[in-house]
């Protein structure tokens, strides 16, 4: 036997550790954003499109605002919308998926057909249509993203529930008179947590792109609040003169999405090893 061979789950633990470190950076930006920013994101200076200096580490934008400050504060806005919308989608997905999978019958039929209607539309096009109809405000953006990602999470919950609800311990709990609600929440739901956690991490990665893309198109939080998508939209015409105005937000978006992808892969491998 090769002693140098990695132990089962070693790669998963490494990915999970890296993902958690990256997540800690994002949480710090989200919680401490205004405190970490060296200047107010709306503060202007006479030096527009200036390169990196001792005062402005990433330079300034087209009207002289500090790019690093806007990147940090804009990240806080983007991440808050992302976490809030995914949390809302997760709550709705848990309720719909658990009810559909556990109760079955007509409840399953009605819930799945309603979710299929949402599935019939591409996620991004549906998000554009809903935000355009409701208006580009933060609450509407959170509600829209929750709506478009709820079907995915609901299906991830429903699939294992269909199997787990027939296991012997569930039938035993039912035979001794345990209430159906208690069976669903205490005996079924805890056994399907692993795929839910992994899918939630992947949904966070997708949501980052959705939020920034909507903001890029002018359907995100209204000015003067910065966010990564609107920063890209403002900077695209100046990218040849000041490439950092585009590179900074682009790297931030990729870093945030990669964080949740790495975290999802680490969780998947770690949870699979744990279940085995």
Automatic annotation (TrEMBL):
Entry keyword Ribonucleoprotein: no
InterPro entries: BP-dependent_transpt_permease (IPR050366), MetI-like (IPR000515), MetI-like_sf (IPR035906)
Residue stretches spanning the membrane: 12-33, 79-102, 114-134, 140-157, 196-221, 241-267
One Pfam family in the UniProt entry: BPD_transp_1
This protein's UniProt keywords: Cell membrane, Membrane, Peptide transport, Protein transport, Transmembrane, Transmembrane helix, Transport
Keyword Cell membrane: yes
SUPFAM superfamilies (UniProt xref): MetI-like
Membrane topology, as annotated: Multi-pass membrane protein
Subcellular location: Cell membrane
Source species, domain of life: Bacteria
Coiled coil: none
Domain ABC transmembrane type-1 as annotated: residue spans: 75-264
Cited PANTHER family: D,D-DIPEPTIDE TRANSPORT SYSTEM PERMEASE PROTEIN DDPC-RELATED, OLIGOPEPTIDE TRANSPORT SYSTEM PERMEASE PROTEIN APPC
Family: Belongs to the binding-protein-dependent transport system permease family.
The protein, known as: ABC transporter permease
Species name: Alsobacter ponti
